[in-house]
Design the sequence.
């Protein structure tokens, strides 16, 4: 594997991965978080790093507005309604909602005048909406070499794509899934590597 030059982290939450990135010498990071209540925290967390950017929007395949459902644990917040999530994790519920900006990652990078070639690692965990975000990132995906993403084998969220559909999408861009870890609850994480141009 080659060097990770920069990371686009979609579903930043509270930037829990920051220490790990720093340990690997990664400083060029775009943090994207849909929940506006996390913006101040993320901005303060990254304020000492000039090469980090914080963006407050829900990543999708189009632009507009969308309702974000806020969960009581924070990490399960999604623009989608719960599917089997309510059965697998009955202690997690939606307790609030808010309307947030929906935008394409490609458009945001263009508007921010950021050199997209810097960012060759994509980390994405947005509770069933990952594929929609990827469809709005087609320009960026030509520069991405590695992807770490949440995947589903059950419909944890209503309408969320399952892993086979995600594999088909990545195949269009020359990626192969080389590692998968699925929990007993029907969701997990997968690592994709670009094997062809």
Sequence:
């Amino acid at each position: 594997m080659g060097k990770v030059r920069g990371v686009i982290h979609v579903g930043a939450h509270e930037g829990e991965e920051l220490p790990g990135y720093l340990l690997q010498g990664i400083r060029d990071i775009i943090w994207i978080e849909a929940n506006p209540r996390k913006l101040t925290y993320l901005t303060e967390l990254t304020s000492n790093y000039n090469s980090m950017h914080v963006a407050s929007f829900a990543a999708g395949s189009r632009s507009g507005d969308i309702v974000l459902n806020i969960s009581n644990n924070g990490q399960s917040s999604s623009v989608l309604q719960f599917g089997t999530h309510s059965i697998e994790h009955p202690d997690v519920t939606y307790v609030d909602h808010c309307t947030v900006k929906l935008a394409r990652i490609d458009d945001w990078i263009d508007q921010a005048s950021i050199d997209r070639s810097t960012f060759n690692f994509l980390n994405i965990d947005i509770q069933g909406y990952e594929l929609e975000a990827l469809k709005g990132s087609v320009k960026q995906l030509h520069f991405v070499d590695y992807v770490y993403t949440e995947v589903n084998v059950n419909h944890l969220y209503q309408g969320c794509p399952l892993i086979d559909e995600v594999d088909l999408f990545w195949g269009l861009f020359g990626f192969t899934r080389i590692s998968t870890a699925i929990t007993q609850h029907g969701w997990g994480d997968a690592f994709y590597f670009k094997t062809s141009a």
